[in-house]
Amino acid sequence: MAVAARAQWKGYVRFGEVTAPVALYTATSTSERISFHTVNRETGNRVRREFVDSATGKPVEKEDQVKGYEVDDDRYVVLEPEEVASAVPESDKTLRVEAFITCDDVDKVYFDKPYYMTPDKMGIDAFTLLREGMRKKKVAAIAHTVLFRRMRTVLLRPHDKGLIATTLNFDYEVRSAKEAFKEIPDIKIKGEMLDLAKHIIGTKKGSFSADEFDDRYEAALAELVKAKLEGKTLPKRAPPKVSKPNELLEALRQSAGITAAAEPKRRAGKASAAKGRAKATRSAAAKAKTKTAAKRAPAQRRRAS
After folding, report:
1. Backbone phi and psi for residue 43, each to the nearest 5 degrees, phi listed first
2. Is residue 117 a contact partner of residue 15, using CB atoms and an 8 Å limit?
3. pLDDT tens digit string along 203-236?
4. Ranges assigned E (strand) in the chain
5. Which one, of 132, 140, 131, lies nearest residue 100 by Cα?
6. How are beta strands 9-15 and 140-147 bridged, if at all?
7. With contact defined as beta carbons under 8 Å apart, do 223 and 233 qualify?
8. Strands 94-101 and 75-79
9. How many CA atoms lie within 13 A of 201 on its CB side?
10. Per DSSP, what are the bridge partners of residue 164?
11. What's the gap between Cα 192 and its chain centre?
């Protein structure tokens, strides 16, 4: 996807005493997604959204709409637009690098939104110096600035001929993993089931390529719209069958291509291989013992004489 023609933000990136003018472009877009309008089922006309007073039911004009912070039931502290604007931190449009870190230092759960960072023509040398220095040292950079009216922490990483600038969530915005996972019981998996799971994972190793994955939801919506236009109905999909605890072993065997008839042979082969390894170990130990005895024999004969 081509970079958007209009920069979302222009400013500077600064590390040490080196400063380079840069621009940020959104790295992701939802413009290709299927979008819907809300319409009146009876008339087929679009529905217009309107703000109304919750008590009087009368429409409220845009100039009369202000921000309000609820301090009690139906009691608000009203903030005028200029008061809200005064709370925006002052900014000199500079992304200041605070530290260089390894990418693994930041848990990806903190990743918010990625942007492409490109240099201004006047700052290509300084920008390239930062990019290549980070690439050679295999590090990322943590920087801070005011972006879109808020102070943001940004992770900078070399990418192709530019940098990826990813805004990071604040700590209070990320839920505790312990809280989210606290209901998951501690279950120990071992033996054949764990061996089969590792085998299946080993056979499925690969690499990530974004163009190999389709947005099935978007495709399904397109199919639905096409079917509705043609007066057809799409068949309902059956929900996937959930593997029950007592079915896990059989499901793993099927995934690994092991049939019930082949299972005894697989076990026999596994046992035979284990016996073979044990026999080889004993044989190697016997040879080592014989070799040691052969070395000691001359010395024993000399002492005897």
Report:
1. -100, -20
2. no
3. 878 877 777 666 676 777 787 788 878 888 777 7
4. 9-15, 18-26, 67-72, 75-79, 94-101, 111-119, 140-147, 150-159, 162-168
5. 140
6. unpaired
7. no
8. unpaired
9. 6
10. 116, 157
11. 31
Q: Out of 86-90, 167-171, 239-243, which region has the weakest mean confidence (pLDDT)?
A: 239-243
Which has the closest alpha carbon to 155: 213, 188, 113? 113
Q: What percent of the chain has pLDDT over 70?
A: 81
- Return the higher-pLDDT residue of 279 and 203: 203
Enter the tokens of residue 133: 């220095």
pLDDT in tens, 47-60: 988 899 988 999 99
Q: Report the alpha-carbon distance of residue 24 to residue 95 in Å, rounded.
A: 11
For helices 192-203 and 248-255, give the axis angle rounded to 10 degrees.
30
Q: What is the DSSP code (8-state) at residue 231? A: T
Amino acid code (one letter) for 149:
R
Domains, the chain, in order of start with CATH, read 9-30+88-173 (2.40.290.10), 185-199+244-281 (no CATH)
* Separation CA 122–CA 125 (nearest Å): 8
Between 277 and 89, the more confident residue is 89
**Cα–Cα distance list, 14 to 93, 112, 126, 268, 294 (Å):** 10, 22, 9, 66, 74
Whether the pLDDT of residue 297 is over 60: the answer is: no
- 97-131 burial, b at 16+ Cβ within 10 Å, e below that, comes to beeeeeeeebeeebeeebbbbbbbeebeebbeebb
